[in-house]
Design brief:
With 394 residues, the protein is an alpha/beta fold. The chain folds into two domains: 246 residues, Aspartate Aminotransferase, domain 2; 126 residues, Aspartate Aminotransferase, domain 1. 38% of the residues lie in helices and 13% in strands. Helix 6 links the parallel strand 4 and strand 5. Helix 2 runs parallel beside helix 9 and helix 10 runs parallel beside helix 14. It starts with 14 loop residues before the first helix and ends in a 6-residue tail after the last helix. It binds pyridoxal-5'-phosphate. Pyridoxal-5'-phosphate (PLP) binds next to helix 3 and helix 4.
Amino acid sequence: MSLPFLPFALPDIGDEEIAEVVDTLKSGWVTTGPKAQRFEAEFSAFLGGRVGDNSLHAIAVNSATAGLHLALEGLGIGPGDEVITTTHTFTATAEVARYLGADVRLVDIDPATLNLDPSAVEAAITPRTKALLPVHYGGLAADMPALLDIARRHGLKVVEDAAHALPTTCAGRLVGTLDSDATVFSFYANKTMTTGEGGMLVTRDAALAKRARVMRLHGMNRDAFDRYTAKVPSWYYEVVAPGFKYNLTDIAAALGLQQLKKVQAFQQARQRIAEAYDAGLAGLPLLTPPRPRSGDQHAWHLYPLRLAAGAPLDRDALIERLFAQGIGCSVHYIPLHRHPYWRERYQLRAEDFPHSDHAYRHLLSLPIYTRMQPADVQRVIEALRAALAPAGAA
Ligand SMILES: *Cc1c(COP(=O)(O)O)cnc(C)c1O
């Protein structure tokens, strides 16, 4: 008797989200409007801005990719500039610099954390370097104190790709409230909370926030909801730049309002799964994911395992074997230096990224999401134990 397929990821949408979306659909206002505004205010408050405190600006957008693009654009990154990021990421982190005509310097990771290696960052800085883009891989904070120190010493901007990092803490502070120029969260379908597609750009820089609000909607200085709710006839607006179409709809924001209320409970559920995996996989020839520094919180967007020397099969065979038993896994990431575009554009060689490349060849991500039942977690553990235990010892 075979068990139903256990997918790699599933969103956790409850009756509250459904009711909020229905409310929006019935309200007559479906695109960016009151719910997107409320979502921005509540997101800022979640990060620790007080209600009515305007110092932590949250700008809702239709993807994290859009938010990263707006952040770099607003910081003035353009042709001739270089940004430094990790090769061990999704292409969105780096592609936004190319939208602006800037160049990307990919660097290797720290093999212990799989996050950007600060010493590799420092070695990659040139006179053209303008910004650092750390990624909090899997939901584990990058070494922000070291990276912010490098940025300060070299006069660089810092934009955090926090697509995995809600809610992550770094030295006791939530990612989103650190001393970088901007932080961008993703609400893509498989992220730690979802709006279907969506993202949030967070910054304390009032000028950047103002620019991003204009550029998110065609470079118009007033959006439709502003004009609709103004006290005087208000058809008038001005186009001040060739902006983008990056606004978040109220339908998506409705989902976000309710997901945000659950985001800490979601984290706790994923952390329990991570702890069950750590305990259940002990003694097997593999490396369980790195833990956060003591006192810090991991968002556990991913649970990335690495096969160790002595494993009786390789990563590809293990994924196939798990799949044959109805268990979905994934690989995060095929590093950017292995993709044709990045490899050819910058003549990259795997030998230049030994830690990321080694990790890639041994990595697999296990399912870790709130709708998994304890029996699902057990099933994954048992499948791994059966696949990896020394012959005869199972
Ligand atoms: C998902 C993801 C993105 C892009 O997020 P979207 O909301 O889909 O644009 C960027 N960076 C990383 C590391 C991601 O995992």
